[in-house]
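User: Could you write out the 3D structure of this protein bound to zinc ion? I've included everything you need below.
Assistant: Certainly. Input first, then the structure.
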Amino acid sequence: MKKLLKKLIQAETTADKGELAAAEIISAELSRFGVESRIESWDETRANITAHVKSSGHKDALLFACHLDVVPAGDANWSNPAFDAVESNGRIYGRGSTDMKGGIAAIVTAISRIVDSGTKLQGDIILFGAAGEETDSCGTRRFVHEGGSLPELAGAVIAEPTDFEIITAHRGMLWLKVETFGRSAHSSTPHWGVNAITSMRAVLNELENFKIRFERHKLLGECSMSINTIAGGEAINVVPDKCKIEIDIRTVPGQNEQDIINDLQKIFTKLKQKNPQFDAAVSIIREVGALETDSRCDFVKDFCSAVGINKTTAVGFTTDGPFFASLGVPVVIFGPGNPQLAHQPDEYIDISDLKKGVEYYKNIILKFLS
Ligand SMILES: [Zn+2]
C-alpha cells in the first residue's frame, strides 16, 4: 500500500499535469486482483476512473468516491520535494498524501484484499476517482451526468481526510467574479476615460456593508464571504478599462445562490443611478451546494455501526459530496489523514492511519455488502 501511495503522489496530478497518470496507476493495481476499471480521458491528460466489482447478490451497491487531483505545491519551502513521496518517521510526505491519495490508497487496498480473499459479496462495489475536484469539479459533474448507468446505491462514501470522523454535513461554495468596465484613455487626460478601478472602489465600499441573507444553520453556522483576488489596469500611463475581483462565499443549506447574485446586481443598479458611467457585471466561477445528509437515516446508522463510531459531525470545507447527493444517495465523508494538513507545505500522512483506513473500509464493505 505504501508503494501505491508513493506512486500516486509521484504522479503529480495538479490541474496542469492532469489526472491520467494516477488513473493508470489505480487501474494497474486493481487489475492485479482481476478488478476491471474504465478510464475516461479528455483534453489529453484529464481523467476519471471508475472500477466496478460486480456481485451476484441483490443488495444495493456501495459507492466509494475520491478525487485524483491535488493542489499545486505552492511557493513555500518544503523540507523534501513535494512530489518525491519521502517516507520518514512512520509518515509519507508529499502533496496529496493527506488530500487525498492516502484515502485512495486505503480504499484501493481494502477492495483488493476483499476480492483477493474470495469473500462472496451480495452487492457491487463501485470506486470512482474524479478529475478536477480542487478546481471545478469537472470529473464528478461528468460522472453524475452519466448517473443513469449506475446500479441502485445504498450510499456513497467519500474517502477525504477526516481523521476518521464521520462527516455528514458541510457548507456549499459560491465563487463569484465581479468585473467593472470603463473606457481607456491616455492617463495625461484621464477625464477622457472612465476608470474601472475607481468603479471597483465604489463596489468595494458597498461590499464593506453588504450582508448576505441567510438563516443560521444548527450544524454549519453562518454563511461567510471573502474577497480574495483583485486585478485591474494594464500600464501605468493608461486609464484602466477593466477591473476584476473574485469572491469566495461559503453557503449554508437553505440559501439560494441566485438571491445573492440579485442582491449584488441591486448594488450595481444603485451605483449606476449615482454615476451613469458606472458599469459592472457579476458571474459565477464555481458553485457547489451544501451537503446535509440526515444523520438519523439507516445508511448513516449502519455506517456508524460498521466503523464503531457513534458520532457524526460537520466541517467547514467543501467536497464533491453534494453532486452525489443530487443522485438521491446518502453521502458520508470518512477517511484517513488530518484535514488541517491539506493544501499545506510538508503535507504528510501517518502510515498507521493508512492501515487503519484499510481496516475501516473493509468493515464498511462487509457491513453493507455481505
Ligand atoms: Zn480533497
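The first strand starts at residue 37 and ends at 42.
User: Perfect, thank you.
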